[in-house]
Here is the input.
Amino acid sequence: MPSDILPNLGRGRRYLAIPGPSVIPDRVLNAMHQAAPNIYAGALPDMMPDLVRDLRAAACTRQHVAIYIANGHGAWEAALANTCAPGAGVLSLPTGRFGHGWADMARGLGLEVTQIDFGRRTPVDPQQVEDALRADRDHRIRVVLATHVDTASTVRNDIPAIRAAMDAAGHPALLMVDAIASLGCDPLRMDAWGVDVVVGASQKGLMTPPGLGLLWISDKALAASRQLGLRSPYWTWDRRIDADAFYQYFGGTAPTHHLYGLRAALDMLIHDEGLEAAWVRHHRLARAVWAAVEAWGAGGAMALNIADPAQRSHAVTSLRLEAPDATRLRQWTETQAGLTLGIGLGMAEPDDPAWHGFFRLAHMGHVNAHMVLGALGVIDAGLKALHIAHGPGALDGATTALLAP
Ligand SMILES: *Cc1c(COP(=O)(O)O)cnc(C)c1O
Here is the structure.
C-alpha cells in the first residue's frame, strides 16, 4: 500500500450529532419522496385523525393538538399569542439558553416578564417558583414558562416539581413547557404532570426535517384562550385543533411532505418501538456517554456540564474542555472521522476565547448503540490525535454502562 497517501477516515455515512436537526431515518426520507398529493381529498386528508391521535400519544395526553408550519420559535409564539394579551404577566425560568429566547419573545409581544435565572448548570428550584407565585397576590402572572430540557446546558428540569410548586402556591397560572429537545427522548407525561401547553418541533426527537411547530393544549389552556378577545388570526389554535376542512389544520395549504415524514416517524416511535422503549433506549445511550466522559475526565479537563445524573438530559450532553480544545476536537471529528459535534451554544459568547472550551454530543432520535459507541470512539481517537490529556478506559466504561440494568 502506498504510504504517502494521507488517510481520510471520514468517508462513509456521516453522523450529525448537533442537537437538531437530528438524524433523519431513511424511512422518513423515503416516505417524503413522493409526487405532490391532492390536498382536497384522498389519502393525505384522510390521515389526519390517526396523525393527531399519535401526536397525542407522543406527549402522553388525551387533550388537544395544534400543528403550525413553523419551527420551534413559531410554536413558542403561538403558545403565548393564544393565552396572553399585551401586559399580561409571564414567569420565566431559564436554565441555559432557550428559556431566555422564549422570554425575549414574550417581551416582544408586550408581556411583562418576571425572570428567575437558574444559570447554565442547575435546574429550576421549585421553592423559588412557589415563592414568586405567592408574592404575586393579585395573580398578574398568567403563564409560567419552563424548559424541559435546555438543549444548550443540557439541564433536564423536574416538571412535576414545578407543577407541585404552582399548586402549593395556589396560583392559577398556566404551566407551559418547551419540550422541543425532550419529546420522544426523555419521559414526558403531559396529563399526569398537569402541563397546560407542551411546545414541540419536528426536527429533534421526532426525527422529521425542521418545519413543523407543535402544540399540545390542555382544556384549561383552551378555556383561557377563549376568554381573550384579542388574538392573532393566523396563530389562533381554535380551528387547528378542531378543523372541519383539511386546510384549517394548517391555516392554509398543508405541509404535505412533512406530514408524510411525520407519519413515518410516528410509526417508528409510537407503533414499532413504543414510546417508553424509546425513553429507555435514550437513557441507556446517555449513560454510555456519561461513563465515557467520566473516564476521560479522570485524566484531563473533560467534564460533564451537569454534575447530577438526575438533572441531565437523555437526548444531548453538554461537555467542557480547556479552550480551545473543544473547537479543535470538533474540527478533527468532523473533517477526519465523519462525526459533526455540536457547538457549545450559549455557554460563552462566540468572541470570548472561553467559547472554544464547550461542545455538545447529541444522542437524540434515530440513534443506536453503534452510532453512539462509534461517536465515543471517534472522540477518543481525536483526543489522542490532538494530544489532549484524558484518562483511559472510556469505551470500556461506556459499554459497561450501556449493558448495566
Ligand atoms: C431547538 C430548540 C428550540 C428552537 O427550535 P427552532 O426550531 O430552532 O426554532 C427551542 N427550545 C429548545 C429546547 C430547543 O431544543
The chain has a mean pLDDT of 97. DSSP finds 15 helices and twelve strands in the chain. Residues 275-297 form the longest helix (23 residues).
